[in-house]
Amino acid sequence: MGFARFGAVAVLGTVGVYGGLYGFAVGNRVFVVLGIALTVLAVTGWVVSVLQGSWWWQRRRPVWVAGSAEVRAASPPPAGGEFGRCELQLVVMAPGLASVDLSIRDSRVPVRSWPEVGDTLPIEVDLDNIKRTRVQWASFRKPEPAEPEAEERDDLAFDDPDHAYLDPPMFTEEELDALGYSDLPPTRPILPLEDEPTYLTARYLFPTERFRGEWRRHWVRPFTRYLLTLALTVAGAILVNRYVPEKYLTASRAGVPVLGGLIGLHVLFAWWAGRFVLTQKRVLLVGGVLRRRVAMAPLLRLTDLRFEQSTLGRLLNYGDFVLEGMGFFSRIRRIYSLPNPNELYLRVVEEMYEPEAVEARLGGGPVGDDEPQALTQAFREAIYGPPLVNYDGWVGIEMVLGEVIVPIGADRSVALEPDRPYRLRVHLASDPHAAVREPLVVTGGIDREFAQFTVELDSDQRDLRRPAQTIAVGPAGGMATFSLHTPPAGFADSPWLWVRVSQQHRLLQSVELIANVRVALG
Q: Three-class SS string for 299-341?
């Protein structure tokens, strides 16, 4: 329900209720009948508006039709992240509708499929309102650029069948049926992810903050306050008739309903303007009509979050949120009468602990016909783990004593002296960087500017083992350094050193060295 319609319904209903109360107090049937008529008209308008905006009403009408849109202009992609907000100027074309120039903003645009001028996007258009156009990003794929012929590797080429786990095949329909896909329980409906904040809350969000949703309090909150105001007004009218002197009676009889009506309108408009807002960094509570109040709590400060439901709250689906970690007198410590508390609780907790899932859902768009592919992807990630980041480069290893590089033989043996501090450097770069090097190639994953690798130094001698290090490798490469101190007496046998490079807990490359620690004579 828009603000104009809500304002009309609120004013008509309040004038009807309190005008009828005034007519009853002064014994004027005209005011009573007029008040009842206005109240009935306001209630009817409210019911129709609620039904038109309800989920089941929208489901009964075939609103959306498939179409296409040509990109005339698009804002540049963000510098980082997988998804971003894009402002698009489109030429919308759909069956049964004339071509229309339209400007939209979408905050669920995947960076890897960022639109450019001339691209044709699959869309869905509302037949009743062409401005309600949504792009089906899940069905839009940018053409992949032709890859240059890869240099032949003599070892560990990760696109061979022996390493097919990096890009497992898609499940067929028969395999999905065998896995019981058709018997999977239907997903529980959740609160939709809103695209843009309303003008009431947008002014309190900074530009880089990612908006997740805003909600009004449950309707039971203004309803109970409105009834309380009405009850106090009725009591005031009775007291006025009984105790106010005759010369002030007329003004008092009019003043009590007018004051009660103004308070009732304030209750309704305060409910309309109040919002509970969620972003990727904080929650906000915005309220007030004549006097604005904004309270905020960072998600990082929340030590506990719970919601409470009374018996009536369970019947009408509302509850109270309690945010632990705030001050005892903080206005945002307890938030009363929030709708759909279970779904909203999961939304906030997911934002606190699994923000990547929110980003994926924002960028994925509706599943629709791609549901089997989405299920296949879920199976792949469940079985093989998250997708790897593509990389084409080398692992280079060098041993350093002070500033001198210790030579490593062709048989991968390195001569070390006892009781000396050494540093083992592991270079990950696009070009060979050291005398001892092995290829590091990952294909079949996703493309990113930076790839994160885990480098570990293992040995058959406990004293030479070192904890794993995680490094981010970009266009300039990356390096991990391990400090080694050889024992004064050396080793009885030449120890082995293994440098292992992995990604997402999957081993990609392993390089072996033999350390010959010479024992000092005498």
A: HHHCCEEEEECCHHHHHHCEEEEEEECECCCCCCCEEEEEECH
